[in-house]
């Protein structure tokens, strides 16, 4: 789970204005909260997704982090302070900077890396040719010196395993 969703949580933290070190700490805090609070996730609610719940846990961890006494900065005034404040990123706006399609693409890429060793190289090649390059099963089969049925089976098995790995991501 951390391998799959960790980079996304880190990205959200950085886009929310956290430094590299704070973002790494926040990722650990988020997954500690996920571990202890996973039973709080309710998939039976309309529109509920694990990624949406994880985003909320991340946002709450960022708010807790900002409220912590060691993270409070003594307030200063004047033009310089105003300019610094205006240069900060709004975490709510940062969420829209990476499109949902890019987020999903990154998740799928990481999931593929996680499951790659579970399949023979030829099956992964069949998957890449048909799903990622858009070739038909017959065209991929011709390149692989296989049958179209073998290509479809490999594609189907890998897609099924990807769905298991990604959970509620469509």
Task: Describe what is shown at a glance.
The protein has 170 residues and is mainly α. Helices cover 70% and strands 0% of the residues.
Q: Can you offer a commentary on this structure?
A:
This protein is mainly α and 170 residues long. Helices cover 70% and strands 0% of the residues. The protein is built from nine helices and no strands. The radius of gyration is 21 Å and the shape is elongated. The two termini are 17 Å apart. The model has no long low-confidence stretch (mean pLDDT 80).
- Oligomeric assembly: single chain
Q: What characterizes the major β-sheet?
A: none
Count of extended strands:
0
What helical percentage do the residues reach?
over 70%
Order of helices and strands: HHHHHHHHH
Radius of gyration over alpha carbons?
A: 21 Å
Average pLDDT across residues? 80
Task: Tell me the distance between the termini.
Answer: 17 Å
Shape: elongated
What are the low-pLDDT stretches, counting only 5+ consecutive residues below 50? none
SS field, number of helical segments: 9
The amount of beta strand, in percent, is under 5%
Structural class: mainly alpha
Fold topology:
Elements: H1 2-15, H2 20-37, H3 50-67, H4 78-87, H5 91-94, H6 100-115, H7 121-132, H8 137-144, H9 148-166
Helix pairs in contact: 1-2, 1-3, 1-6, 2-3, 6-9, 7-8, 7-9, 8-9
Features:
9 helices
């Amino acid at each position: 789970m951390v391998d799959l969703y960790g980079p996304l949580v880190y990205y959200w933290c950085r886009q929310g204005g956290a430094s590299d070190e704070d973002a790494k700490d926040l990722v650990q805090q988020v997954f500690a909260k996920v571990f202890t609070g996973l039973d709080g996730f309710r998939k039976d609610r309309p529109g509920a997704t694990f990624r949406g719940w994880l985003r909320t846990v991340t946002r709450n961890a960022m708010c807790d982090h900002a409220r912590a006494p060691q993270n409070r900065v003594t307030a200063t005034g004047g033009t310089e302070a105003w300019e610094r404040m205006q240069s900060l990123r709004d975490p709510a706006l940062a969420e829209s900077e990476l499109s949902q399609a890019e987020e999903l693409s990154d998740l799928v890429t990481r999931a593929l890396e996680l499951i790659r060793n579970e399949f023979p190289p030829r099956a992964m090649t069949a998957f890449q040719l048909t799903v990622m390059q858009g070739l038909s099963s017959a065209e991929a089969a011709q390149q692989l010196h296989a049958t179209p049925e073998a290509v479809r089976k490999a594609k189907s098995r890998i897609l099924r395993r990807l769905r298991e790995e990604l959970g509620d991501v469509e």
